Amino acid sequence: MQISQRAKNIQPSATLALSTRANAMRAEGIDVINLTVGEPDFQTPKNIRDAAIAAINDGKADSYTPVLGIKELREKVAEVTNKDYNTNFTSDNVAVTTGGKFALYAIAQCLLNQGDEVIIPLPYWVSYGEQIKLSDGKPVFVKPSKGLKVTASDLESARTDKTVAMILNSPQNPSGLVYTKEELEEIGNWAVKNDIVIICDDMYGKLVYNGTRFVSLMDLSDDIRKQTILVSGLSKSYAMTGWRVGYAVADAEFIKKIAAVAGHSTSNLTAVSQYAALEALNGDQSSVSTMREAYEERLNKIYKKLKEIPGFVFDSKPQGAFYLFPNVAKAAELVGCSNVSEFAEFLLEKAHVAVVPGVAFGMSDYIRISYAASLDNLEEAVKRIKMFVEERK
Ligand code: PLP
Question: Same domain for 101 and 248?
Answer without folding.
Answer: yes
